[in-house]
């Protein structure tokens, strides 16, 4: 054994080929924490001192090669002085440069995911051999940074500037066949042949079949691009990527600038350019929040994994109520391989549900993600029926009938009599109390909520709602089913609106108050979209549907009258009463026309302005900052209350639910991280100033006041400088 550490071992084979093996103890995946990077440095030093080595193979004992750097270290690392971050980056550069400069050929045997820092490690070797199911990529821009361990330098020299820009700015994972096509890897082989193929390539290199020095020189020299080629490769890409990323995500464009500035430089100077840009991005609040988002996502996944481990597998599902929503649920289940029975009492509803599922599968075929035969096979996972005859062996039934407590209650009682005693019933409701719906059930412990967001196939969140009598087994099974469907389940406790809608409707309340005091709804939309929301509140109400919004608002007002009950009509009610329901009937705050792809496109409509004028009680001037504050404070305050009321289990789950469920701007990290970024004391002061005029919807809780007084934050870490 040449070297042995906690994560890395280096052993010499009989043919004098050494194998550096990544196998981080007590972890399911390999990641490059600061301690692992230190081990890599020590392992390379040991290799240099070993005589007679003829080659080095990098391998992994885990299913993934290396998933990247240890992101749990990022917040603390990036809070350091710029000089300390620079020292760290330069140190890693020197380690990977040592790997690249070893006096014998090197190869990476990539058996699984090689992402981020893991990808930058394999880029440092002379050759890369990839298993057929493996993927590599540089996802750093999704964290608000760029590849900082040489990825911006080595990748464009290996696969060309155009391809490198696409990989780095897009941040995606790249399959083996695509990697081979652009020259990122030298061979793709079946997994069982991987190490033999990697070893063979080293032996052939030693036999003189490959010019190792020429390969290294090309990777360490300036890019061979003339002025016109540079302009086409970089300037065009910057415009395209900037338009796609938007103004709030600077990392993709910054990465292109780094590749461009380093294109004419040797390795050392190009790495220095990369380091400088990395530090600049690492100190931004966008990076701080996107890293926090990743960590929150890990918290949510760990919690859902714990629930799912306790559940028996869902082998057969059912959805009660077809139509668009039922068809969407059936599609999602069938597409992920969980057979589903789709029942309705009307044949036309069944046909509508099947049409919806077929339409969604057809789109997958159009995009090349599914073959026609694959579509036909997956459609057989959906079994339509008008009777309960196929329900005896169903593990989970999702009730998705009309949002009416009396109808849902009657349907659930009827359903319970038709299924097995251990079958889990889950209601797809957005507002109706799960505890109330369970009142007339014989087995309320087998019942919970399963709130899908529309459209089902696109929205990642599923709220799993625990009623007062819901048992752990019901929650576990529903979480397991949501995960099997490819969704992110978050468990919440029962209350009016649950978590997401309870938080969303104070936001709409802030919108209604602004409109009443003379703010133009189109201007509000533009300001909130610039703030980072995918659509402004008026546009969002049109998408939700005015009838749905009015109903949900009534539920909220009944449940929280001191904050959410309103006197007089709101603009939302006026729209509803004038049959302006939004996109569903092509007129709401905006009118809607079909674009070339058949999707609704919003256009201005003078009639809506006249109707809104009916509720305007005064005329005031609002700054952009006033509008943002009056929209965001009630949403953030209700999120705080949900956490304090134990509706949601942690700040991480609360923030992820808002990002996945209603499109809260990801780069802002979520409502609670937004409060932390503002400063808890500053946020309380702002809320108090608004509450004096606008009432309890804006008022801070006593617990939040105490947090402000004690200097506490929701995440226990300081915001970025």
UniProtKB/TrEMBL annotation:
<dbReference type="GO" id="GO:0004165">
    <property type="term" value="F:delta(3)-delta(2)-enoyl-CoA isomerase activity"/>
</dbReference>
<dbReference type="GO" id="GO:0036125">
    <property type="term" value="C:fatty acid beta-oxidation multienzyme complex"/>
</dbReference>
<keyword id="KW-0560">Oxidoreductase</keyword>
<keyword id="KW-0413">Isomerase</keyword>
<keyword id="KW-0456">Lyase</keyword>
<keyword id="KW-0442">Lipid degradation</keyword>
<dbReference type="InterPro" id="IPR029045">
    <property type="entry name" value="ClpP/crotonase-like_dom_sf"/>
</dbReference>
<dbReference type="InterPro" id="IPR001753">
    <property type="entry name" value="Enoyl-CoA_hydra/iso"/>
</dbReference>
<dbReference type="GO" id="GO:0008692">
    <property type="term" value="F:3-hydroxybutyryl-CoA epimerase activity"/>
</dbReference>
<keyword id="KW-0511">Multifunctional enzyme</keyword>
<comment type="similarity">
    <text>In the central section; belongs to the 3-hydroxyacyl-CoA dehydrogenase family.</text>
</comment>
<dbReference type="InterPro" id="IPR012799">
    <property type="entry name" value="FadB"/>
</dbReference>
<dbReference type="InterPro" id="IPR006176">
    <property type="entry name" value="3-OHacyl-CoA_DH_NAD-bd"/>
</dbReference>
<comment type="similarity">
    <text>Belongs to the enoyl-CoA hydratase/isomerase family.</text>
</comment>
<dbReference type="Pfam" id="PF00378">
    <property type="entry name" value="ECH_1"/>
</dbReference>
<dbReference type="InterPro" id="IPR036291">
    <property type="entry name" value="NAD(P)-bd_dom_sf"/>
</dbReference>
<feature type="domain" description="3-hydroxyacyl-CoA dehydrogenase NAD binding">
    <location>
        <begin position="317"/>
        <end position="495"/>
    </location>
</feature>
<feature type="domain" description="3-hydroxyacyl-CoA dehydrogenase C-terminal">
    <location>
        <begin position="497"/>
        <end position="592"/>
    </location>
</feature>
<keyword id="KW-0520">NAD</keyword>
<dbReference type="InterPro" id="IPR006180">
    <property type="entry name" value="3-OHacyl-CoA_DH_CS"/>
</dbReference>
<dbReference type="InterPro" id="IPR050136">
    <property type="entry name" value="FA_oxidation_alpha_subunit"/>
</dbReference>
<dbReference type="Pfam" id="PF02737">
    <property type="entry name" value="3HCDH_N"/>
</dbReference>
<protein>
    <recommendedName>
        <fullName>enoyl-CoA hydratase</fullName>
        <ecNumber>4.2.1.17</ecNumber>
    </recommendedName>
</protein>
<dbReference type="InterPro" id="IPR018376">
    <property type="entry name" value="Enoyl-CoA_hyd/isom_CS"/>
</dbReference>
<keyword id="KW-0443">Lipid metabolism</keyword>
<dbReference type="GO" id="GO:0006635">
    <property type="term" value="P:fatty acid beta-oxidation"/>
</dbReference>
<comment type="pathway">
    <text>Lipid metabolism; fatty acid beta-oxidation.</text>
</comment>
<dbReference type="GO" id="GO:0016509">
    <property type="term" value="F:long-chain (3S)-3-hydroxyacyl-CoA dehydrogenase (NAD+) activity"/>
</dbReference>
<dbReference type="InterPro" id="IPR006108">
    <property type="entry name" value="3HC_DH_C"/>
</dbReference>
<dbReference type="Pfam" id="PF00725">
    <property type="entry name" value="3HCDH"/>
</dbReference>
<dbReference type="GO" id="GO:0004300">
    <property type="term" value="F:enoyl-CoA hydratase activity"/>
</dbReference>
<keyword id="KW-0276">Fatty acid metabolism</keyword>
<dbReference type="InterPro" id="IPR008927">
    <property type="entry name" value="6-PGluconate_DH-like_C_sf"/>
</dbReference>
<dbReference type="GO" id="GO:0070403">
    <property type="term" value="F:NAD+ binding"/>
</dbReference>
